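tokens incoming
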């Protein structure tokens, strides 16, 4: 998944097997240290796939770089391309937001992506997240001359989430 150029289109680079393994190790360490993290998304066995078929991840994380909106909790997702457009990211993200607001008692969750990533922005909007274009920002870990640098910032608060679900 992390080496697929289309999946990684809105990231500065795709990951090779070693980089992907290191990323998975970081995810595991984060899950062991906190009450939240990036959780594996698996399909239920419908007979056509092996049991516990991994299709990607969805979860909560904390950006480690400075921005006007940090510190914050971010919701993010990445799915294998063959599972795009089937509602899996939205469905899993709804469960993650429920966990964030009901269990962790978060007041707000943010999400962001490159302005070019219309698919992820559509998921954010289906979740009821809102964007104020005045909060769009240049991602500090992306070169300023890179077309991926400018990012849209979306937010959703606990009260809006509770009223919409």
């Amino acid at each position: 998944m992390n080496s697929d150029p289309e999946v990684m289109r809105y990231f500065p680079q795709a990951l090779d097997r070693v980089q992907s393994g290191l990323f998975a190790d970081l995810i595991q360490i984060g899950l062991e240290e906190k009450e939240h993290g990036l959780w594996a998304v698996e399909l239920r066995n419908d007979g056509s796939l092996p049991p516990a078929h991994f299709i990607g991840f969805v979860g909560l994380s904390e950006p480690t770089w400075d921005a006007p909106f940090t510190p914050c909790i971010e919701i993010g997702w990445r799915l294998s391309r063959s599972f795009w457009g089937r509602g899996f990211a939205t469905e899993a993200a709804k469960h993650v937001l429920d966990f964030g607001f009901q269990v962790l008692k978060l007041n707000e969750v943010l999400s962001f992506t490159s302005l070019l990533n219309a698919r992820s922005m559509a998921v954010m909007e289906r979740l009821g997240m809102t964007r104020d274009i005045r909060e769009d920002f240049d991602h500090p870990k992306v070169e300023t001359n890179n077309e991926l640098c400018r990012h849209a910032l979306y937010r959703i608060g606990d009260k809006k989430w509770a009223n919409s679900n």
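note: The mean pLDDT is 89.
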